[in-house]
Amino acid sequence: MKNILVVLGSGRRKGNTEMLADAFIKGAEDSGHKVQKVSLASLEVKNCLGCNACRYSKPCVLKDDFTKLIPQIKSADLIVFASPLYFWTLSARIKAFIERFYCMAEEDHNPPLGRYEKYPIHDSALLMTAADNLFWTFEQAVTYYKFAIVNYIGFKDKGMLLAGGCGETNGLPQIEKTNHLADAYIFGRSIYQN
Ligand SMILES: Cc1cc2nc3c(=O)[nH]c(=O)nc-3n(C[C@H](O)[C@H](O)[C@H](O)COP(=O)(O)O)c2cc1C
Question: Which of 57, 71, 74, 192 has the smallest number of CB atoms closer than 10 Å to its CB?
Fold first, then answer.
């Protein structure tokens, strides 16, 4: 049994992204995992001020909901980043959440090339939805995920589900017309199976 934290970065509740995340969660729970879901739309997680107080052994100066999330982040075996594609990348809510990892950095006496500290984290996965479904639709988002979240922060990637074709210009959620929810269920159910 693994502890899974699903972080929702969509601006709206019950949209494509939350439906995708819920299908993943159902699959993970059916495999016996314990899942917690947090929506950044219902919390206040400000972006990093860059004051560097945390680099001088002080707690983060921002007093918002991120403080409450730190124990959940540290105890999670897997963090699932669930985001709509906003202007070809992850939503600003997810980006702000990631920026705040800065205050959790720990000293690393033997850092790999290009990294200066280490983070108290384990595995990660990426769930995304988008209106478009072209071969390059998720390219920037995947690059950010691989570069910053996996290669830099150091999460071990457990996979991605990139759900394109989830909306028309009217903006109404369309994910139920696709196979993505069934795929997300299978992804969740099999995430810790070999
Ligand atoms: C501000 C904004 C920017 C968006 N940018 C893109 C984009 O760059 N490419 C795309 O394919 N869809 C884009 N979309 C559409 C959403 O990614 C898509 O409808 C998504 O499934 C919405 O997720 P939600 O239902 O959880 O809100 C954008 C939507 C919004 C509101």
Answer: 57
Q: What is the pLDDT of residues 168-192, one digit of tens each?
A: 777 888 999 999 999 999 999 999 9
Ligand 1, atom 8: closest residue by C-alpha: 87
Cα of 114 to ligand 1 centre, how many Å?
A: 32
Q: Pick from 148, 146, 101: which is nearest to 120 by CA?
A: 101
Could you tell me which residue, 99 or 116, shows the higher pLDDT? 99
Q: What is the pLDDT of residue 112?
A: 84
Closest CA to 82 of 14, 167, 192, 7: 7
> Could you tell me which CATH number the domain at 3-190 has?
3.40.50.360
Between β-strands 106-107 and 117-118, what pairing exists: parallel, antiparallel or unpaired? antiparallel
Centre of ligand 1 to C-alpha 50, Å, is: 28
pLDDT digits (tens, 9 = 90+) for 117-133: 899 889 999 999 999 99
Q: How many CA atoms lie within 13 A of 123 on its CB side?
A: 13
Task: Round to whole Å and give the CA distance between 67 and 71.
Answer: 8
